[in-house]
Design a protein that fits this description.
- It is a single chain.
- This protein is of the alpha/beta class and 243 residues long.
- The protein is built from seven helices and 13 strands.
- It has helices at 60-69, 84-87, 90-97, 105-111, 170-186, 207-213, 222-229; strands spanning 2-5, 25-33, 36-44, 50-54, 73-78, 101-104, 118-121, 125-127, 130-136, 145-149, 152-156, 192-195, 205-206.
- The protein is globular, with a radius of gyration of 18 Å.
- The protein binds fe (ii) ion.
- Residues 81, 83, 140, 157 line the site of fe (ii) ion.
Length: 243
């Protein structure tokens, strides 16, 4: 369990009122089941202790311990998409902590995912004093969502530090190009990026670094991006071996 606290918090002990610009605390949870490795993120408003967890999977004991260790009050479960390694514990955590599950309506429609406390996302909302801004980023799946919370971006399988998520066909790859273009233009370079998986770089790399080093962010035309994303000979065991 690694806790990331933003260095540029505006809060100071001299301030009488809590500063709404204060950055949330991000607890990074490395989860594993057999060969599956996922990152979960517990994101906590440091004023109210209200928290959300992103894509809970595999190790519920770690989630429980992180909630206790950070004195969090879990309010919501945010899902980036409906693949099994991202939704694995959503129902169980939702029941245990009596909190809703969020997913894009596009992803619900395309995947058929259902759960007792499932709430389709309809624009930005707040948990505690944290503003949660969803960005619809289709391509890996039709309804993938990235979440902006403070100076953090949670990207699921859309954007990794080292690459981007796989796309099932050319049409999806064109959508991925548009999604990555939107992130490139919309996300401040100082934003910390927290993907669902790592292929070398630890979570929390700055967008600025990805803009320079991630090969999938370098393409200038959709055609060239799609040709590279859908190139033949790709292997799941060497997914970011570009040579
Ligand atoms: Fe996925």
């Amino acid at each position: 369990m690694i806790v990331h606290r933003a260095a540029h918090s505006q809060h100071s002990p001299a301030q009488a009122e809590p500063d709404v610009r204060q950055q949330p605390e991000v607890t990074v949870l490395a989860m594993q089941h057999l060969h599956m490795k996922n990152y979960n993120y517990l994101v906590r408003d440091t004023d109210t202790s209200d928290a959300v967890i992103i894509d809970p999977a595999w190790e519920i004991d770690k989630i429980d311990r992180a909630i206790v260790a950070t004195n969090s009050r879990l309010r919501e479960i945010l899902l980036t998409h409906a693949h099994s390694d991202h939704v694995h514990l959503a129902r169980e955590v939702s029941e245990r902590y009596d909190c809703p599950i969020r997913m894009s309506k596009e992803e619900i429609a395309s995947s058929g995912y259902d759960a007792p406390r499932l709430r389709p996302i309809d624009g930005p909302w707040a948990v505690g004093k944290m503003r949660i801004e969803p960005i619809l980023t289709p391509g890996h799946t039709p309804g993938c969502i990235c979440y902006v919370i403070g100076a953090n971006l949670f990207t699921g399988d859309v954007l990794f530090a080292e690459g981007c998520g796989i796309c099932p066909n050319d049409q999806a790859a064109y959508a991925m190009y548009d999604s990555l273009s939107e992130l490139k233009h919309r996300i401040d370079p100082s934003t910390a990026v927290y993907p669902g998986h790592s292929y070398g770089d630890p979570p929390g790399q700055k967008m600025e670094r990805l803009l320079k080093q991630n090969i999938y962010l370098q393409f200038r035309t959709p055609e060239s991006f799609v040709a590279f994303r859908m190139r033949s000979g790709q292997s799941m065991t060497k997914i970011f071996d570009f040579r």
